[in-house]
Model the fold of this input.
Amino acid sequence: MFRKYGILGILMIVFVELNFLFRLQPFANWYFPIVWYGYILVIDALVYKSKGSSFISSRPKQFMVLIALSAAFWWLFEVFNSMTIRNWAYMGTGGFGHPALKYLFGTLSFSTVLPAVFETAELIKSTHVFSRNRLGHEHRITKSLLHGMIVLGVFCLVLFIILPMFFFPLIWIAFFLLLDPVNYMHRQPSIIRHLKDRRLLIPLSLMLAGLVCGILWEFWNFWAIPKWSYDIPFVGFLKIFEMPILGYIGYLPFALEVYAMYYFIMGLLRQHRSSEITI
Done:
């Protein structure tokens, strides 16, 4: 059964699409949370129809955790961006007036990132398109490998901070290298564990979900009033919407990174047993 809130989500998306033409305020300024929560409602309803369970219908507390962590994670990326090279900047935000409204808009918008990626991954997973994809043979996971990944993650983060002009892409893989081995060692869900078991369903579903969401992020951003634009050294050519074509590659590891970040925080809070999201 397609849940009724999925119909609401469709209406929200259609409204935003039409309002890109009419630009009715204040809705035009608040398009991002409207369209993305609409998207999340639609995808969740599709997942429920396919599986008989979903984040919103079956695990609402976990869904709220995703929303909260999503906002926190992206504010962290905003801090890194503002501290270093400023790969992206926002335009058209003057219509919010009071700065508090601008920060509220940002927080509501950022809160949709993880739910969108995880919901999309769950929908892809439910299609079984990657169910038969497995590694050819089992790989041995050693402590040296795990520790080496952590060191490499720290190294990537340091390079990004001190030489962002040349190493700006490393921010989209640094936290994965740093945290996924920690998750594996503490028996949290991790990409490393999936690869050790030779299963590619979750890693491939996540990466495809990241790309799908990335394309939609850039598509809806292109027509918006408050929007972002990019200033990316060396590879800022051949833009699709506002994003240079090579920039879309970053959405693949980004999905793995937020997966690792989510389970790392859940491990710290010792809530992974009660609030684990299965994707």
